[in-house]
Amino acid sequence: MTLSLRQRNAYLKKLSKLFYEKGVIAINDPQLNFWSNHFALTSAYILQNRISLTKELSKNEYEVQYRTGIQFDRRKLTNIEYLVESIETSLEESKKRDIATGYTNVGPHRDDWDISQGKDIRKFGSRGEKRLAIGKLIFQTQEIVFKKTSKYPILLLDDIASELDILNTEKIFERKFLDKQQTFITVIDYNSLPKSLLSDAQLIHLNGS
């Protein structure tokens, strides 16, 4: 998707310039149509897999919902041709706006997701609750990848403990989660990490020099 999105946006910028300089809206431009079709095809697979992933992540503690600007019937999620047509329709409806802004305004790059646990974590959760939820969902994702590939990918946790109290920090950094793969953890103060984790961790100190 990255290539087709980059190319489509680059061409939209040219059409946007043509619009503002000469008042021409190139609605049926062949090159724009080509990149729109290419973008729709790659986006359909991304959309399909992201929604499937949110269903997997919703089986445990949190409910995860995928929010997209693409209008389609989710009962037809497995029909890739239908998804491509739905995305192409949304792109066609947004074409004038895209040309005016010089940017693709609909698609997976504009989508988002919601996390709930009795309440909307994104809207009403504390910073600590949000970090705890993200941490747990990361571990769930690791398990999903393992089931599909029989391997755990390298895990990167960037300053995830900064908003957590001691109890929740210990929940996030349980050895049963971290020992399954090579794990890199960034923190401002390593003393905030559980001592059991530090006992055999390799510490690398970074500074601004």
Keywords:
single chain; 209 residues; mainly alpha; 2 domains; two-stranded antiparallel ribbon; two-stranded parallel sheet; 9 helices; 4 strands; 54% helix; elongated
Fold and architecture overview:
The protein is mostly helical and 209 residues long. 54% of the residues lie in helices and 9% in strands. It has two domains: 2-113, no CATH class; 126-198, no CATH class. α1 (2-22) packs across α2.
Number of E strands:
4
β-strand percent reads: 5-15%
Low-confidence stretches: none
- Shape category: elongated
Portion of residues within helices: 40-55%
Topology of helices and strands:
Elements: H1 2-22, H2 30-57, E1 63-67, H3 80-93, H4 95-101, E2 112-116, H5 121-124, H6 127-149, E3 155-158, H7 166-172, H8 175-178, E4 183-186, H9 195-198
Parallel strand pairs: 3-4
Antiparallel strand pairs: 1-2
Give a quick summary of the entry.
The chain is mostly helical and 209 residues long.
